[in-house]
């Protein structure tokens, strides 16, 4: 667990810790429109996005180009999924009056900055990023030895730096990409003069939610619960969660530290986590009963999102308008940065 629990969020930049309200900054974060987001996306990222709206100048992007890096063979669904993602965000509490909600491909300046960064970034540096190798291994049946997929984190750095973002709220799996973003900013500033801030990573107190089987949460493993799952689906998924494999009989003492059900108690019902761990270690409660107790806390997180989405689904034009307005606002800011970038490089601007 990172930082004291009474902080709403913690920021990491070589050890720095940020208290809510202590400073204002610019926030950018993004999410891929590749299927309905899951409870990990909410606990690891969206919850902070919502909190930060009141304290920061926030821009949140539906990063549809990123979805194409792995889904380039069948991009037809990306448009529809972008609109659906916006509905989920609104249902989770992102407020277009407070934050700018935008679509990456509607702001082509992200691509220009990506291109300029790619001039000085070395191939071996990108190939060394652990998530690159991991994804190449994990995602089967698709050729990912592409230029676009290798450049994924460069595009992410462009998304962040084009708004001169100071804080980026994400889950732990994004740490390597944000490390690269800081390096890109440092390298740019060194080569062409000071322009970009050194961005801080912001985590929730739950930056890695494991899958229901204890492995990494991934749609391809079928171990996630989406933010629009029905009550029955949630019940089934929680009841089928994997528990400590060494706890075979009801009377065996369990090990909460290896059990995803315990991790979910910490995330969804923290007030019951300590008692759960005690009862597990001392075989006072069986795994079936323990899982049953988790169903309602998970429902309580998903239910308002599912219901909110149903409401937004009645107003697709309004959601499209919100994204259109947000993308235009974002574009104005992005154009300003790109002008400065061209000046720094010494490009002729007719
Ligand atoms: P994406 O779309 O995979 O995930 C969106 C956010 O959800 C977090 N997350 C999790 N957090 C905790 N536990 C989990 N199991 C879990 N699974 C996902 C992710 O860390 C992320 O914060 N590369 C990014 C998208 C991106 C971006 C950006 C992010 C593009 N440009 C600029 C920040 C800034 C991604 O694929 O996120």
Topology:
Layout: E1 10-12, E2 26-31, H1 39-52, E3 57-62, H2 64-71, H3 78-92, E4 100-103, H4 109-120, H5 123-127, H6 130-138, H7 147-150, H8 152-161, E5 167-169, H9 175-192, E6 200-203, H10 231-239, H11 260-268, H12 270-281, H13 287-313, H14 316-345
Helix pairs in contact: 3-13, 4-8, 4-14, 8-9, 10-13, 11-12, 11-13
Bound molecules: tryptophanyl-5'AMP.
Summarize the structure.
The chain is mainly alpha-helical.
- The multimeric state of the shown protein is single chain
Identify every distinct bound molecule in the structure, by name, code or SMILES. tryptophanyl-5'AMP
- The first-level CATH class of the largest domain is given as Alpha Beta
CA radius of gyration: 21 Å
CATH topology of the largest domain: Rossmann fold
Number of domains: 2
Identify the overall geometry. globular
- The count of DSSP E runs of length 2 or more, i.e. the number of strands, is 6
Give the termini separation: 53 Å
Measured by DSSP, the beta-strand proportion falls in 5-15%
Mean pLDDT: 92
Query: Uncertain runs with pLDDT below 50, 5 residues or more?
Result: 1-10, 12-22
Sketch the topology as an H/E string, one letter per element.
Answer: EEHEHHEHHHHHEHEHHHHH
Largest sheet: 3 strands, mixed
**Mind telling me the CATH superfamily name of the largest domain?**
HUPs
């Amino acid at each position: 667990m990172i930082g004291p629990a009474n902080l709403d969020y913690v920021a990491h930049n070589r050890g720095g810790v940020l208290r809510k309200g202590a400073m204002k900054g610019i926030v950018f974060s993004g999410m891929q429109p590749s299927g309905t987001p899951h409870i990990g996306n909410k606990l690891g990222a969206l919850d902070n996005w919502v909190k930060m709206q009141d304290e920061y100048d926030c821009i949140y992007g539906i990063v549809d180009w990123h979805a194409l890096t792995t889904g380039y063979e069948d991009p037809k669904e990306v448009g529809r999924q972008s609109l659906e993602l916006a509905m989920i965000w609104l249902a989770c509490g992102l407020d277009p009056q407070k934050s700018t909600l935008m679509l990456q491909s509607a702001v082509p300046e992200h691509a220009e900055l990506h291109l300029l960064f790619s001039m000085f970034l070395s191939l071996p540096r990108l190939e060394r990023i652990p998530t690159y190798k991991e994804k190449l291994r994990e995602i089967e049946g698709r050729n990912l030895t592409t230029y676009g997929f290798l450049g994924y984190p460069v595009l992410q750095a462009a998304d962040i730096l084009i708004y001169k973002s100071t804080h980026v709220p994400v889950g732990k799996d994004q740490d390597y990409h944000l490390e690269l973003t800081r390096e890109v900013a440092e390298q740019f500033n060194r080569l062409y003069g000071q322009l970009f801030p050194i961005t801080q990573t912001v985590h929730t107190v739950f930056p890695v939610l494991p899958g229901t089987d204890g492995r990494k949460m991934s749609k391809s493993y079928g171990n996630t619960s989406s933010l629009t799952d029905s009550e029955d689906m949630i019940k089934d998924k929680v009841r089928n969660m994997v528990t400590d494999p060494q706890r075979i009989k009801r009377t065996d003492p369990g090990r909460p530290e290896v059990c995803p059900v315990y991790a979910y108690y910490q995330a969804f019902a923290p007030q019951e986590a300590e008692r759960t761990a005690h009862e597990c270690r001392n075989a006072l409660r069986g795994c079936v009963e323990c899982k049953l107790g988790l169903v309602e806390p998970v429902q309580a997180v998903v239910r308002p999102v599912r219901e909110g989405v149903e409401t937004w689904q009645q107003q697709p034009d309004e959601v499209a308008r919100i994204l259109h307005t947000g993308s235009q606002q974002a574009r104005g800011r992005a154009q300003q940065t790109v002008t400065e970038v061209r000046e720094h490089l010494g490009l002729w601007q007719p």
